[in-house]
């Protein structure tokens, strides 16, 4: 049976423990300790390992059959007597956390190529005996597929302990799938996966066993292509649809292989004489076009000086070769422009780096490897790179001098004098099983072009990122240029198996180099100060600063002078980290962000990561080394959104280079919903304020996690809650990174005033704090503007200023607006009419209220915003007697409150305050004088029409029916999209144009669905998130949920047009409304989605309605309302479905929302306590200590765990007992039949459950959950 492998997570610990406990007890107690030391802390192993994997049988993910974890250094149990770095030295500071290679080479006669950068250590392994052999082979193959630079996996075992299964398994013959043997068919002993390394000291306590990459993964041999390879390539090309695809012309393989020249070369990669990879490179590229389109300044515009101007030397040679004769290299500036920020970032000049390749050179300047000169017929990068390590020679550094700035003419002349320094990959293909080794083809390409230092690849934005680009760096396009393609660049140093840089703890002597490195950077003074402070405080377990330099002789490529003397490497990077000073500070971060989902401990913040652009592709390895040398499990990066803050942990703004690196390498961390504690006191301690920043994390298990990079241009039009929900779903997907996500909105992101404390109706999809902590500007390019045209043919959005935003998919999510055109012709031209749209006309309205002349303020509309508009005027100092609220007749059965009691009480409060209410009147005309509003004439549409004139009128506030804004309608209409009052879509948010989607209140279902359901009746955030899931299913189907969604979409698309359409999508999240009404009353309501025709009165008449728990003490007085109205609706199943509140007290809305979908028994038997008359005030009752754990964001998971535990206890019960089984069966029968149990039956059921033997296990679960909530004083 095939195995399903995935990354291990901390939640897998119980299943791994079950796998361990399945072995005999003597193995668990003795053998396991010998194999992996003691104690075995599985969560710590998983959180701290850069690679850990679990396996299960296909179709059964619950039970694991194997677990393997790899570490970055030797495990702790091998050095009890001697520290890895030498006797008497603490391991925590200089052992596994530093260069352990000296210890290994001193104790074992191991090859010199076992280095920090290419070796991983087996930290833990357990497997089901029935699957052990298959698991070890698949797990090692998967590990080496992910860890592309790893050549060796090592393991330490006590000398007297035999190698155990499955590590003693035989290697598989990769061709036949059978154990490989020495001597071929001669019958010698089979090869082992792990082989012993000879001891260098006779009294060593441990054996070292190694597994080499070439014994597990196939070795690619790269050579020049021949015409006869066409037949071998054709099957691979057909499989990848490069030929035989009706969408594009077939590639003539024979002609392509035959037409090779000095500029165009074709390479093939083969395994066991079978061609599995193909690459065509061309050294004649469109240089000027690339320079004009992309920011190539950090790469010297892919140019270099001609040989006659070369002055300095850098050569690559064998470590054992004599010093090379000096050879000139191009003269270059010491500084290059960084496109991510201006001022400039100092970088190592590209042309001062030798044209290094994977082959060792003869040491003579300009020599080319013989194999390459002969046509690369025998190139084997993996084998040749094991022979020796190349070294890099630099000219002796002089004191850093900043060169004078060039004039434009001088710069242009210098560019003209340069020559191309890059080649491109014009065609590439590789079989899927070998995709991770695509780098070998790139190395071979550099060897075929020894005079070029850069390789470039351009791909269409709609194309998925290929494995070839793992070592390439994306280059941003220039503003205003075409972005239909994405440019990737790789320097020849990026593809070496041996890294050309080394990371070390900073010292005082590094300060001068760092001062020069950050010169002219944004915030350079802050960076210098932070580096000095960090360097002076390099104490404890977390070093504070690191320097990145070109590698020294002991770490691969070395910096040496022209005379052959070793020199300190050139500074090419700086890393500054800060620790978390106290448990209280750490708790503030873990309480407000989902850090615990990645790792619970060993955290530090990254203050700055600055790297030379040539080495940006090495940034992940730099961060891995920082984590290894500090013993950290994760690095955090905070992006604050306020310069001034009382919180000292977020006062430093991030420089642009660090922010760009964090966007590329780190994973965004979602904010957590915190419990709103009464009086903001948690166990007598004030709750810290929200952190005004977003957060990213790079945890050890994520170091080699492959994320799908999507360059598709997705443009979202409109920052409605639906649009925000869509972007939130895409930005926080853990498996996909979207690099071209754009939001076009008139006012940008609506950060402010979204929590219902202002007189604008909110649906509370996103709170202000949540939006800040989500940090969408860190993921989305935000354009403030208005779309004037959606050009479907050119696939671009044209803005009002004439600028253009290109798209591959456009998502239309503008909200509905109040429009004065609905008041009649000419109303828009009259001064003094204001719409109640948020962020519109507010300044003018403020002026009107301050300079009010004699006259009334008329608020017109039946929308809830009209009622909130009355409070808006009262807050602005307008007298209640000067306010007239005109409520037109209802067009739908449901009023804005959908509750007759609330309708009556809101009107009573306004009457008591002195507000004039005209109910049932419609606007007939507006009177104006000198272009300004002067009066209104109303008419009652009853059987006896009555007219009412209000004069004089100072201003009209309009808040009646919301509709599609005129500008939005014009864009939709001009784009020839179907419009029927709203933009028409199908079930899957699609319009007739497959590149245009729409969602939210602006849309409606096509008439063929014959439904009155629409998105405006549902929670907008859920609608947007569902559209996000649909978009994600187009790019990644590795998860079952996305795969199933894609299959459902394809199934619906294949339906016959005459067949009945599928039913619309069902949304289940609560529809929420928050408003501030007259009398400073807070209105809050949530309910499950329902049709507009299903009024509260209609639903109350249904047999399955349930019951309402109502406490009403709200009274209207001239001095303001007193008391409150609180209603809780409980379904017949006991589930709380709706809550309505109206009162002056400000409820913790986040807490109350947690009640949706919760059984009333969880809420302290709220129904029975209400019936007994114990509860006098729901607000106070729900703020008591017992209720606080219900609002903890882990409560849903806890309830699911209880359900799993219940069914587990049922299975463990003895046949004679069965109390829990009886309880579960009775409850299931009740749910199926809908018959309510009597009080006596309920008491009997509770008694049977209390007497069950598994009751204590459930009580333990509850106690552990309460402890996790950390409300200790409330629950002693």
Automatic annotation (TrEMBL):
Organism: Geranomyces variabilis
Secretion signal span: none
Any one Pfam family match given in the protein's UniProt record, by short name: CFAP61_dimer
SUPFAM superfamilies: FAD/NAD(P)-binding domain (SSF51905)
The organism's taxonomic lineage, starting at the top: Eukaryota, Fungi, Fungi incertae sedis, Chytridiomycota, Chytridiomycota incertae sedis
Ranges for domain Cilia- and flagella-associated protein 61 N-terminal: 5-304
Region (Disordered), start-end ranges: 318-410
Compositionally biased residues, Polar residues: 351-361
Top-rank taxon: Eukaryota
CFAP61 dimerisation domain: residues covered: 1066-1189
Protein name: Cilia- and flagella-associated protein 61 N-terminal domain-containing protein
């Amino acid at each position: 049976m095939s195995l399903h492998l995935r990354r291990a997570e901390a939640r897998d610990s119980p299943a791994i423990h079950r796998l361990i406990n399945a072995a005999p007890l003597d193995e668990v107690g003795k053998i396991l300790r010998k194999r992996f030391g003691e104690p075995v802390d599985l969560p710590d192993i998983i959180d701290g390992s850069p690679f850990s994997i679990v396996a299960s049988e296909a179709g059964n993910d619950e039970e694991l059959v194997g677990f393997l974890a790899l570490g970055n250094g030797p495990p702790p149990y091998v050095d009890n007597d001697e520290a890895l770095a030498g006797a008497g030295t603490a391991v925590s500071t200089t052992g596994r956390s530093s260069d352990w290679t000296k210890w290994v080479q001193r104790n074992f006669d191991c090859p010199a190529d076992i280095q920090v950068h290419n070796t991983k250590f087996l930290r833990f392994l357990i497997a089901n005996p029935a699957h052990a052999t298959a698991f070890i082979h698949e797990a090692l193959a998967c590990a080496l597929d992910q860890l592309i630079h790893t050549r060796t996996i090592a393991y330490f075992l006590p000398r007297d302990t035999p190698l155990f299964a499955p590590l003693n398994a035989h290697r598989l013959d990769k061709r036949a799938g059978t154990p490989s043997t020495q001597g071929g068919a001669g019958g010698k002993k089979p090869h082992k996966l792990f082989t012993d390394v000879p001891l260098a000291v006779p009294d060593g306590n441990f054996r070292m066993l190694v597994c080499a990459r070439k014994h597990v993964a196939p070795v690619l041999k790269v050579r020049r292509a021949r015409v006869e390879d066409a037949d071998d390539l054709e099957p691979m090309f057909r499989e990848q649809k490069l030929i035989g695809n009706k969408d594009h012309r077939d590639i003539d393989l024979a002609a392509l292989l035959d037409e090779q020249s000095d500029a165009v070369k074709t390479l093939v990669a083969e395994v066991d004489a079978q061609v599995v990879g193909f690459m065509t490179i061309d050294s004649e590229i469109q240089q000027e076009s690339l320079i004009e389109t992309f920011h190539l300044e950090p790469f010297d515009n892919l140019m270099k000086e001609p040989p006659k101007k070369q002055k300095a030397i850098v050569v690559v040679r064998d470590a054992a070769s004599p010093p090379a004769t000096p050879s000139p290299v191009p003269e270059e500036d010491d500084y290059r422009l960084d496109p991510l920020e201006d001022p400039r970032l100092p970088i190592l000049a590209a042309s001062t780096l030798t044209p290094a390749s994977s082959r060792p050179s003869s040491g003579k300047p300009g020599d080319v490897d013989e194999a390459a000169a002969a046509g690369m017929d025998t190139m084997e990068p993996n084998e040749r790179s094991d022979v020796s390590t190349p070294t890099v020679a630099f000219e002796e550094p002089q004191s850093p001098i900043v060169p004078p700035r060039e004039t434009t003419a001088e710069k242009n002349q210098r560019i003209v004098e340069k020559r191309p320094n890059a080649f491109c990959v014009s065609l590439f293909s590789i079989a899927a099983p070998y995709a991770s080794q695509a780098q070998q083809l790139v190395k071979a390409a550099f060897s075929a072009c020894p005079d070029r230092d850069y390789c470039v690849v351009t791909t269409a934005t709609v194309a998925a990122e290929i494995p070839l680009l793992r070592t390439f760096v994306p280059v941003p396009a220039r503003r205003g240029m075409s972005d239909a393609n994405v440019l990737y660049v790789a320097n020849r140093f990026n593809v070496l198996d041996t890294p050309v840089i080394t990371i070390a703890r900073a010292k005082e002597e590094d300060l001068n180099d760092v001062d020069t490195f950050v010169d002219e950077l944004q915030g350079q003074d802050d960076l210098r100060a932070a580096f000095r402070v960090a360097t002076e405080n390099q104490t404890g377990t977390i070093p504070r600063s690191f320097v990145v330099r070109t590698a020294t002789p002991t770490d691969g490529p070395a910096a040496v002078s022209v005379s052959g003397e070793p020199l300190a490497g050139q500074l090419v990077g700086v890393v500054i980290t800060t620790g978390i000073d106290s448990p209280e500070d750490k708790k503030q971060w873990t309480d407000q962000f989902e850090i615990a989902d990645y790792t619970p401990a060993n955290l530090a913040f990254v203050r700055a990561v600055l790297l030379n652009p040539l080495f940006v592709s090495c940034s992940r390895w730099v961060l891995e080394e920082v984590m290894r040398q500090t013993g950290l499990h994760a690095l955090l990066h905070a992006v604050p959104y306020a310069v001034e803050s009382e919180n000292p942990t977020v006062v430093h703004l991030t420089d642009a280079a660090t922010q760009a690196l964090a966007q590329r390498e780190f994973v965004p961390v979602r904010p957590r919903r915190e419990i709103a504690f009464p009086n903001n006191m948690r166990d007598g301690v004030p709750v810290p304020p929200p952190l005004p920043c977003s957060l990213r994390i790079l945890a050890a298990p994520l170091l080699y996690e492959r994320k799908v990079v999507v360059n598709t241009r997705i443009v979202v039009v409109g920052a409605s809650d639906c649009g925000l929900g869509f972007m939130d779903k895409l930005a926080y997907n853990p498996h996909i990174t979207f690099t071209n996500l754009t939001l076009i909105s008139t006012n940008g992101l609506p950060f402010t005033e979204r929590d219902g404390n202002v007189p604008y109706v909110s649906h509370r999809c996103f709170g202000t704090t949540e939006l800040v902590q989500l940090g969408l500007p860190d993921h989305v390019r935000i354009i403030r503007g208005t779309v004037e045209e959606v050009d479907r043919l050119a696939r671009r959005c044209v803005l009002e200023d004439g600028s253009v935003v290109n798209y591959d998919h456009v998502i239309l999510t503008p909200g509905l607006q109040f429009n004065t055109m609905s008041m009649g012709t000419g109303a828009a031209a009259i001064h003094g009419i204001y719409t109640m749209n948020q962020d519109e006309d507010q300044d003018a309205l403020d002026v009107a209220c301050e300079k009010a002349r004699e006259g009334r303020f008329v608020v017109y509309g039946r929308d809830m915003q009209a009622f909130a508009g009355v409070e808006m005027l009262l807050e602005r100092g307008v007298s209640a007697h000067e306010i007239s609220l005109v409520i037109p007749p209802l067009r739908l059965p449901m009023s804005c409150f959908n509750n007759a009691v609330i309708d009556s009480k809101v009107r009573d409060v306004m009457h008591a305050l002195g507000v004039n209410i005209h109910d049932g009147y419609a606007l007939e005309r507006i009177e104006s004088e000198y272009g300004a509003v002067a009066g209104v004439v109303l008419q009652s549409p009853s059987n006896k029409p009555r007219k009412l004139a209000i004069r004089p009128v100072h201003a009209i506030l309009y808040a009646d029916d919301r509709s599609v804004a005129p500008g939005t309608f014009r864009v939709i209409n001009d784009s020839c999209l179907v419009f029927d009052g709203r933009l028409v879509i199908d079930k899957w948010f699609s319009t007739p144009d497959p590149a245009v989607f729409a969602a939210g209140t602006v849309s409606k279902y096509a008439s063929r669905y014959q439904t009155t359901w629409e998105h405006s009746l549902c929670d907008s955030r859920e609608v947007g998130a569902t559209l996000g899931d649909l978009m994600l299913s187009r790019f990644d189907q590795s998860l079952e949920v996305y795969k199933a969604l894609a299959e459902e979409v394809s199934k619906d698309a294949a339906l016959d047009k005459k067949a009945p359409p599928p039913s619309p999508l069902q949304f289940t999240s609560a529809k929420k409304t928050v408003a501030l009404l007259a009398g400073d009353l807070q209105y809050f309501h949530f309910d499950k989605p329902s049709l507009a025709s299903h009024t509260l009165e209609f639903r109350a008449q249904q047999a399955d309605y349930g019951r309402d728990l109502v406490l009403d003490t709200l009274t209207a007085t001239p001095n303001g309302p007193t008391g409150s109205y609180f209603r809780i609706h409980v379904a017949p199943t006991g589930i709380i479905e709706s809550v309505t509140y109206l009162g002056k007290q400000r409820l913790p809305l986040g807490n109350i929302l947690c009640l949706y979908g919760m059984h009333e028994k969880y809420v302290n038997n709220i129904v029975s306590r209400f019936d007994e008359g114990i509860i006098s005030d729901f607000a106070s009752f729900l703020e008591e200590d017992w209720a606080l754990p219900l609002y903890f964001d882990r409560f849903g998971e806890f309830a699911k765990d209880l359900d799993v535990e219940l069914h587990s206890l049922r299975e463990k019960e003895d046949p004679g007992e069965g109390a829990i089984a009886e309880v579960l069966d009775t409850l299931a029968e009740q749910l199926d039949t809908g018959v309510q149990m009597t009080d006596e039956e309920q008491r009997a059921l509770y008694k049977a459950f209390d007497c069950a033997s598994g009751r204590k296990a459930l009580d333990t679960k509850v106690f552990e959950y309460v402890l996790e909530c950390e409300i200790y004083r409330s629950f002693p």
